[in-house]
Amino acid sequence: PPKSEKIWWEKINEKERKKAIRSAITATILQEIVAERGHLIPRNYPFVLDAKFESLNKTKQVLAAFEKLDLSKELARVEGKKVRAGKGKSRGRKYKKKRGPLIVVSKTGKLSKAVANLPGIDVVEVKNLNTEVLAPGAKAGRLTLWTAPAINILEKENLFK
Q1: How many angstroms separate the CA atoms of 138 and 130, rounded?
Q2: Are strands 95-97 and 144-147 parallel, antiparallel or unpaired?
Q3: Which residue of 12, 35, 46, 66 is surrounded by the most CB atoms within 10 Å?
Q4: Phi and psi (nearest 5°) for 15?
Q5: How far apart are CA 123 and CA 59, in angstroms?
Q6: Which has the closest alpha carbon to 101: 138, 128, 62?
Q7: How far apart are CA 122 and CA 111, in angstroms?
Q8: Beta bridge partners of 146
Q9: 76-100 pLDDT, tens per residue?
Q10: Angle at CA 48, nearest 5°, toward 18 and 29?
């Protein structure tokens, strides 16, 4: 029978982990890789969001900001869900959902609550970045929106060097 003491995670070397995060961050900046992954990116991608973006606290405000950033096609792309092929349907994994934009912020406040009802969008703090959110499905190049304070923290603290 299944044992409760089984270890479900895999250990990874520290240098290897940091190198994977750095390469995933680099892939989020390159338009070709992001478009190849299936994201519908605007012409002026990549760009840095203002610090005021972190203070948005309503879903309506976030949607209006995405409209101004020309990300409405991307939001429409991630809305649907698809029935999974295979036996996963009967094992509690019936639907597959697409991953949309990732918003990297300096500290999660009410923005994460405002984005909670939007499908496919994730909000993550800089210090909590990992390859799981930057490259879901082990495929690098997720559409990532960085705020200015998040980039300042990333440069100042050298988190992944």
Answers
A1: 11
A2: unpaired
A3: 66
A4: -65, -40
A5: 13
A6: 62
A7: 10
A8: 48, 104
A9: 999 989 999 999 999 999 999 999 9
A10: 50
Long-range residue pairs from 39-43, CB within 8 A, at least 24 positions apart, any chain: 39/74, 39/77, 39/100, 39/101, 39/141, 39/142, 39/143, 40/73, 40/74, 40/77, 41/74, 41/143, 42/69, 42/70, 42/71, 43/70
Residue position matching structure tokens 């406040």: 109
Cα–Cα distances in Å, from 16 out to 11, 52, 124, 156? 11, 35, 21, 21
Does residue 160 carry a pLDDT above 80?
A: no
- For residue 90, the SS3 value is helix
* Mean pLDDT for the stretch of residues 110-134: 92
Q: How far apart are CA 90 and CA 103, in angstroms?
A: 33
DSSP SS3 for 36: helix
The amino acid occupying position 82 is: K
- pLDDT band at residue 1, thresholds of 50, 70 and 90? confident
pLDDT value of residue 10? 85
